[in-house]
Amino acid sequence: MILVTGGAGFIGSNFVLDWLAAADEPVVNLDALTYAGNLGNLTSLQGDPRHIFVHGDIGDCALVTSLLAQHRPRAIVNFAAESHVDRSIHGPEDFVQTNIVGTFRLLEAVRAYWGGLDVADQAAFRFLHVSTDEVYGSLAKDDPPFSETHRYEPNSPYSASKAASDHLVRAYHHTYGLPVLTTNCSNNYGPYHFPEKLIPLVIHNALAGKPLPIYGDGQQVRDWLYVTDHCSAIRRVLAGGRPGETYNVGGWNEKPNLDVVHTLCAILDELSPRTDGQPYRAQITYVTDRPGHDRRYAIDAGKIERELGWKPAETFETGICKTVQWYLDNQAWVGNVTSGAYRDWVGKQYGAQQ
Ligand code: NAD
Ligand code: TYD
Q1: What is the pTM of this model?
Q2: What is the pLDDT of residues 103-137, one digit of tens each?
């Protein structure tokens, strides 16, 4: 079996669903259920014995140690993190705590477990750390895209904390021989995306008749990857990646934010037109820019294609249409998230104040 951390979040839950749809290898899913964790993403797995959910923190060494001893996973995929740049600007401490201290404690528990395996199991074991292209900093307009050897130049507390975790993971390979893999991926979008991030926020606000906030001039560029393509890349790296290596993952889809928002508005005009006949782009509002806002991210995903034969299956056009349709079909999920109702279940289940 494998241990997934952060498997109730956006990418982690997509990964767990895809993993169990593709094969029968069980998943232990360790998630602290912060505001970003939502077991409603995994309702289709209720009663499925292949999915074992554990409510807990990656920084809880005793818990992780006992899970490793009990389930003896052959691999760990570490998604657990604080992930929103804007939140990291308002409150960086949680990012240091989970992304740096949490990853460190997880690595310590894993190192002890791995050290106790026999030689064959040690060689087969993998620790896959899921990271971001934001660790490389910002590109100028004509710079080549980020390769795996690009200098680390993180600019936000979020990207700095992810960069620190990447360095720890790397060090555990070089110092202790732990068979680690790191993936650095561009911006994901798709089902179960928390509506604090650009794409789900714009879809939600458009349908709710609210402003569509564009930071600054809206000309910041991101590379966008449909989430199931990220999940397939992670599966591929886990299966064939060389221990100690990092792999950049991206969609070859560089878009300025304003273009993304215009595309979303145009799709919504088609699929769910405003009752007053006005286009959704009329709701676009320019707001104060994010401090330290990175201008451009772009990923050279050539290494993972050359070495492991991975390429995205979706184009931006196909992925964004599927995404809008998913949000239109799943308004109850969106309502639960935006009302906070999804958190009542956590309170009921765990009696926790979260
Ligand atoms: P998310 O915020 O939607 O989910 C994070 C999950 O981790 C949540 O379920 C949360 O409850 C859980 N979590 C947080 N702190 C924890 C802790 N201390 N212990 C256990 N669980 C904890 O994030 P996401 O967008 O799904 O991102 C997942 C990973 O992928 C992150 O490591 C992120 O840095 C990375 N990443 C994200 C993107 C993106 O576009 N979203 C792109 C590249 C890389
Ligand atoms: P976001 O989804 O927060 O991802 P990241 O900051 O990790 O790239 O933001 C994507 C881009 O959209 C980023 O350049 C910031 C911008 N943005 C807005 O213009 N308005 C918004 O309301 C949000 C949330 C983001």
Answers
A1: 0.97
A2: 999 999 999 999 999 999 999 999 999 999 999 99
Ligand 1 proximal residues by C-beta, below 6 Å: 5-6, 8-12, 30-34, 36-37, 57-59, 79-81, 83, 98, 102, 130-132, 162, 185, 187-188, 194
CATH number of the domain residue 104 falls in: 3.40.50.720
User: Is residue 339 included in any domain, yes or no?
Assistant: no
Q: How far apart are CA 295 and CA 323, in angstroms?
A: 25
Count of alpha carbons within 13 Å of 331, Cβ hemisphere only? 7
Distance in angstroms (rounded) separating the CA atoms of residues 137 and 295: 9
Residue 353 has pLDDT above 80, yes or no: no
- Ligand 2 atom nearest the C-alpha of 212 is 22
Q: Based on the structure, what is the number of domains in the chain?
A: 1
For the chain, state the CA radius of gyration: 20
| Model confidence pLDDT, tens digit, residues 285-317 | 999 999 999 999 999 999 999 999 999 999 999
Identify the domain containing residue 80 by its residue range. 2-186+227-251+293-313
In-domain check, residue 114 = yes
- Residues 120 and 214: their CA atoms lie apart, in Å, by 53
Ligand 1 midpoint to CA 69 (Å): 25
